Model the fold of this input.
Amino acid sequence: MKMRLFVGIALDTVVTDALKRLTASLRRADDGLRWSNPDGWHITLQFLGSTEQPAYECLLARLREIHRAPFALHLGLPDVFERAGVFHISVLPSQQLTALERHVVAATALCGFRPEDRPYHPHITLARGKGNEGRRGLRVLQQRLHPGRPMPSFNANEFLLYQSFPTPDGSRYEICERFPLR
Done:
């Protein structure tokens, strides 16, 4: 059985609540955007894609070998990845976050997974715009963005292996395994 997997960090409820307030202030019924479900907000460390059971077992073993200390995560400003059609809030890269991402990529490589070609850009996806209407919606949204108050920071005390279930309304995520940072 194949599973669609990725490794990420869940958000603290204080951050989720702040992002809910932000998205509620920006969201419009006719904006042409597909807004992400707050239950699925996370910071991706590595997208793994379609995975067979033997690779899954390897992942669990290798990810359990990662030993890193908990660390603080700080969010940046809302922005748009125009090419990808994504409205997001950036996560400020830190030495600890970058090191964890590199350790995850090295561990998954031992199971046959390949890292992405592009540089790691940590963020939280809040909405997607598809097609002409979505691109227009993102442009309008971008014009309405204002710096506002800074987002709260939080401590990463664990990272998770998630399974993704694509649906017409966006993906739904389930936690397969938790890996504590200590």
Remarks:
- The first strand starts at residue 3 and ends at 10.
- The radius of gyration is 17 Å.
- Strands lie at 3-10, 33-35, 42-51, 71-73, 75-81, 86-91, 123-129, 154-156, 158-165, 172-180.
